[in-house]
Amino acid sequence: MIDVSAYAANSAGGPLEKTTIERRAVGPHDVLIEIKYAGICHSDIHTARNEWGHTVYPVVPGHEITGVVAEIGSEVTGHAVGDRVGVGCFVDSCRKCASCEAGEEQYCPNGYVGTYNNVGRDGKRTAGGYSTHIVVDEYFVLSIPDGLELDAAAPLLCAGITLYSPLAHWGAGPGQKIAIAGMGGLGHIGVKIAHAMGAEVTVLSQTLSKKDDGLRFGADQYYATSDKETFRALRGRFDLILNTVSAPIDMDRYLSMLAMNGTLVELGLPENPITVSGFSLIRNRRSLAGSFVGGIPQTQEMLNFCARHGIGAEIELIPADKINEAYERVIGSDVRYRFVIDAATF
Description:
Layout: E1 2-9, E2 16-23, E3 30-39, H1 42-48, E4 65-72, E5 84-87, E6 90-92, H2 98-101, E7 113-114, E8 133-137, E9 142-143, H3 150-153, H4 159-169, E10 177-181, H5 187-196, E11 200-205, H6 211-217, E12 221-224, H7 229-233, E13 238-243, H8 251-255, E14 258-266, H9 278-282, E15 287-290, H10 296-309, E16 315-318, H11 323-331, E17 338-342
Helix pairs in contact: 4-5, 4-10
């Protein structure tokens, strides 16, 4: 076993605190990663505060991890000591089902193993990237291309693949009109990726406060959803809408902006069930769908794509002792656009 420094939540109402955790010894197919950066995802906050109701304490969050290989197992072939690598939302799956064999491990019907707050095949609970080191099976370790800075690449391991996967699945490209609803930690990366794919990109945000940023990231248009005229002006316009907003929205109004055969993809996780009128779907033969991150092959594809196009997250780098403050700022939408922790401060 390896003892490493980490930050953990010990209760739903308490702060994250510095601690020491154990990592397993490096097995034949394992990679020991010296973590350099860990992104803060809103999912970390939901889990740390037990807002989804399944947290087991203590919990070490973090599934946007970048670092350097420090040691490899005797049978590892895909990574070498010194390689720049990353780890995303899961660290194992059954590897036998149709989903896993297709490289869609995130949809494993037997359950993938989450990077934290989950139980691994060894029966022990997983601990995430708010730590100095992590041991991961080589298959679930991603290569970070040289064209990406490790700090700006960290949020790509969750936020980036969350947007890339539906854009790729629904064939985003030249001639397509795509809307990104929400210009936060998810949405701003989606704008960059959709633009790089060649689509016409529109941002739908509550206000115009981030319009200059949106246009700089590659948006062709930027509309405020607080203006009722927006929904009239954009009726029937889009082939694809990606909703990154976790707060409740009037889904019928957003569906009205889809062209014939258009699709609205739900990426956010609102607290309450989504309600939709059947009429909103049958008109224009619209579809309402969902998408969840991406498998290991597609995540590597995303990283390579982002490196080719110079796409990284817009980040604010913080020391570990600012994690609790950062959580409050995320809740207050006081970040442009993603917090990343410097793991040297753990």
